[in-house]
Amino acid sequence: MTDLRLTLYLSRLLPDPVMAIVRDRFQLVHDPHDVSPAPSALREGLCQADAAIVTLGDPIEAETIRVATRLKVLANYAAGYNNIDLAAARQRGLIVTNTPDVLTDATADLTWALLLSTARRVVEGDTLVRSGRWTGWSPTQLLGADVSGKTLGIIGMGRIGQAVGHRAVGFRMPVRYHTRLFMATSSLPREWEYRSLQALLGEADVITIHVPLTTSTHHLIGARELAWMRPTAFLINTARGPIVDEGALADALKTGIIAGAGLDVYEQEPALHPTLAQLNQVVLLPHLGSATAHARVQMGLVCLENIHAVLNGRPAPNQVH
Ligand code: DGY
Predict the structure, then answer these.
(1) Where are the domains of the chain?
(2) 4, CA 20 to 30 Å: which among 95, 242, 259, 271?
(3) Ligand 1 pocket, 80 CB below 6 A?
(4) Index of the ligand 1 atom closest to the CA of residue 299
(5) Which band of pLDDT confidence, cut at 50, 70 and 90, is reported for residue 226?
(6) Is 308 among the residues known to form the active site?
(7) DSSP assignment letter at 195
(8) Cα(318)–Cα(213) distance, rounded to whole angstroms?
(9) Domain 3-102+293-311 has CATH 3.40.50.720
(10) Whose CA is nearest to atom 6 of ligand 1?
């Protein structure tokens, strides 16, 4: 649909191919920038728009939803949508959509990048070489942990959890998983085995988190759960920061309760728990899960497809409920 009377609010600048389509089809409420809008600018922008694309860093609160009466569809540029007050959206009839599927591979790949970097001390190695202090090969230098043949524990068996599990085959890693939602076990490989959360944490050499952030997964991993893990185990989180109690994680790493962690997400992004920055056994990434050029363009296209459907009176393919 090309209807320049329809206004679109973009909270952030999106990749070029997406911006070209947006500029062609809509009147933009304002020219977006590559920084998060202030809460007042976000609300003002949403109030002027028929449709909007927002990101995971934009809190969309009940009051904003209430006053943005013109807005018909809010497309979240992410698979997760914990930044949006869904109950308020439902109450006011605002359609909210997300971008599943198109970022599954990118996020699963990054999970493995973190897993391997953490276990094999890749970042410490890179830092040593760049520092000019590397004195050459040594039998005892930067010894890491084996990954191949170890047990992979996956918390959350949605699209990304499953994609991470399928990648374990080449590493001959048995997969154990925990999920709260009922899953038709026939949809999973027969050799993957279900465990209670406590059993999974006690058994796996690597735990990787792939649940959405909700009130019931907030601090799902805290001091008690970390204590259930093996002292040689690693924790990987590419889902959402507040699923892990960061303070408890910092303590567990400092005191050797677990061996290391690979984090792509944080409790108060972009702020970092001060202790984590000081620990070599942690690999820290700036929320790069879906950050491939391909995935980020596809995410934009999915947002536009959903907006197009709603503005033309059709159901949104990715409406979240
Ligand atoms: C998501 O889609 O939820 C990701 O975190 C975005 O990178």
Answers:
(1) 3-102+293-311, 104-284
(2) 95
(3) yes
(4) 2
(5) very high
(6) no
(7) -
(8) 18
(9) yes
(10) 78
